[in-house]
Amino acid sequence: MRFDVLGSTGMTGSDPHRVVEAVWRMEAGRVIAGLARIVGDVGLAEELAQDALVIALEQWPQSGVPDNPGAWLTLTAKHRAIDLLRRRSRYEQKLEEFGRDQERQQADVETETVDALDDPFGDDMLRLLFTACHPVLSTEGRLALTLRLLGGLSTEEIARAFLVPEPTVGQRIFRAKRTLSDKHIKIELPPPGELPARLASVLEVIYLIFNEGYAATSGDDWMRPSLCEEALRLGRILAGLMPSETEVHGLVALMELQMSRIVARTGPAGEPVLLLDQDRGRWDRLLIRRGLAALQRAESLGTLGPFGLQAAIAACHARAMSAEDTDWERMAALYLVLGHVAPSPVVELNRAVAVSMAYGPGRGLEIVEGLGAEKALREYPQLPAVRGDLLARLGRTAEAREEFERAAGLTRNERERSLFLRRAETLRE
Fold first, then answer.
1. Where exactly are the structural domains of the chain?
2. Cα(416)–Cα(413) distance, integer angstroms
3. Which residues make Cβ contacts (< 8 Å) with residue 88, sequence separation at least 6?
4. pLDDT confidence of 12, banded at 50, 70, 90?
5. What is the pTM of this model?
6. Cα 255–chain centre separation
7. H or E element: which one contains 219?
């Protein structure tokens, strides 16, 4: 996100177009959330908010940037919503839905409508987040819609982040909005009985966004930090809105701790630097402190769930000043618990790495060999990469080289492919 345009004395004097972009990125979710509750339609709410954005782009270059551009954008969007309510043939029905007396004067109605939009974050943001991540939508649709509505990203930005054609992203967003409309999905929080399952969907979407930024599945770049930033921002907002939910704080802790390593994960030429080889002096200590605090908060609220357990694993790395100082035995035990809570062959593969560091590569290889028949890992490049590393540590270099070459053939990320090929080449020497 472009926070460089923000100054301590406000935004007046900055490039208006850059200011509009920065304000939109920060305020889009709140503006659309408030509008959506009033007009009852996500697509229409976004259109109204976009109208306000267009007005800002037209007026600010001539009139100058207002002292409080976020408030200006919100108020302009509110007026657009009020104008719409005036024109709609169902206006009287809308008044009834909002519990207003139909005999009130129009001025009173407008005042109440404006007041209804003044919830800063609060329930409106929660409603929009749960709607954008509704289970009736495909995973791709949830990702795109969440980034569009709550992240303030354009279709072009989302397409660039996920390396898919812009029309494809546009279609995903269009279909997601149409599905919500066709299935008459209300913009509301789920009933208490459905909240855990629906919250799990929201957390999954946020972490999928983060993970794609942290370890890109394809393309020339190993990471896309802007996606990590957007996911972390959404997670922090959610933690503020749902302060008593253990897994929300667990997810935030996990993202904070992983984000702390971003700078150290690449070398001077953008090449990947693996965790054990990273200069831990380059890890962001502020993010680590924030992550550990979020983890402590999660632990104080109850039993850790999958995200909290992953955060506890990440904390083992964060607390160690070197790979040798890492509490690998605790990490292996945490992976064992995680495997019971959220069984997954990927969890088992990660446990194999921790076990190999705690008890030797032979023990880790035993776990990896048991994963060879897993269909979910058949095209997963990390399986042969981990096996290759363990074989190399056991002195079985020829086998290890073959595994790294196989991993290079499976990955769709060019940086990762180069890394695997370099590992294979070193084993020829």
1. 3-116, 121-232, 243-312
2. 5
3. 94
4. very low
5. 0.76
6. 9
7. strand 218-219
